[in-house]
Amino acid sequence: MKTEELDILIDKIRGAKSILIAGHKNPDGDAMCSVLALGQLIKLNFGKDALCVYDGNVPDMLDNIPLRKKMHFYGRVDLTQAFDLVLLLDYGNKAHIGGIMPAVENAGFVIEIDHHKNDDTVGDLCLNDVNAAAVGEILFNIAEQLQWVRDSDVNELIAISVLTDTGNFKYARRGDILRIMAQLVDGGVSIERVSNLLNNKPRKTVLTEAAVTSRTEFFYRGRLALATIDAKDYKNLDGRGEIVLSLLGQIKGVEYIVLLKRQKEQQTGVSLRSKTHPVNGIAESLGGGGHTYAAGAVVHDTLDNVRARVLELFRGIK
Ligand SMILES: [Mn+2]
Predict the structure, then answer these.
(1) Of 15, 33, 152, 250, which has fewest CB within 10 angstroms of its CB?
(2) How many angstroms separate the alpha carbon of residue 119 from the centre of ligand 1?
(3) pTM
(4) pLDDT at 239 exceeding the cut of 70
C-alpha cells in the first residue's frame, strides 16, 4: 500500500468521532471476519469503538467466530446520523451494499478496502488489491506496514477470512497468502481450532444435504450426476447446495454435476459444475452464465421442464 494512502486512512480514523464498518449483503466468512477484525484493530490502536453492521443473513456456521456479538444487523441500530467515516469492505459491487447504502451516501468520508474487480467504486479512498486472496489479507498487510498491534481475536478473524475465501487454500493463486498464514500460526493461531469454529451448521441442514445427495440420479454412463431440491429442502440448505455439489464431485467417473432447485412452482435454479469440461455455455443457453467450470442459471419454468431441457443439453457429452 502507498504510504500517502495509509496516511489518509490514519488521519481519517484519528479525526473521526463516529465510524461505521460494513461488508457486502449476506456476508460470507471474509465479509464478516474482515469487518470485525478492522473494528478490533481500530479499538486496539486508536482506542475507538467503530460500529460494525451487516445486511441480509449471516450463515449459521459463522455464529462462533470471535467478536460475533459486535456485529449488528443494520436495521437494529441507528444509522440515521451522518458517520464521519464509513469503511466499506469486500463489497465488490454497489448492488451488494444493500441497506447500508444511505449511510455510505451520508458519510463524511468513505474508505473502501476490497479485493474484487470493480470499475464503479464508491470510496473517496480505495485501498483495493485485486491480487489479495481475501480482504483479511489486505488488513494483515496494512497492520504490518503501520505496525499496528494485533490481538488473538484479530489474528483468528484474519485466518478465518483467508480460509473461507480460499476454500482452505484450494483457490490460493499466490504463495503470499500461505506465508501470511504461516505468520499467523507462528503468532498462535490454530488452524484446527478456527476450522472447528465453523462446524456449526443446524442439524437439519446437514441431514438435508445428505438426503438430497442420496436421491441423486445418474445419466450418460455415470458421467452426469443430477440432484434436485424442492422448495422446503432448499430453505433448510439456506439457499446453498455447495456441499451436495462437492460430494457428488468426489464420485469416480462423474464429470458433470447438476443441482436443480425448485425455488417457486415456475422458477428453477440450476447450478452446474464440471471437473475439466466447460459448463458456462450450457448455463448461457439456459439464460444464465458464470465461470468455466462453475456456472448457473435461474429459469422461469417448472423443475420437470428444466430437468428435461438440461438432460437434452448434456446429450452427447463425452
Ligand atoms: Mn472476499
Answers:
(1) 250
(2) 17
(3) 0.86
(4) no
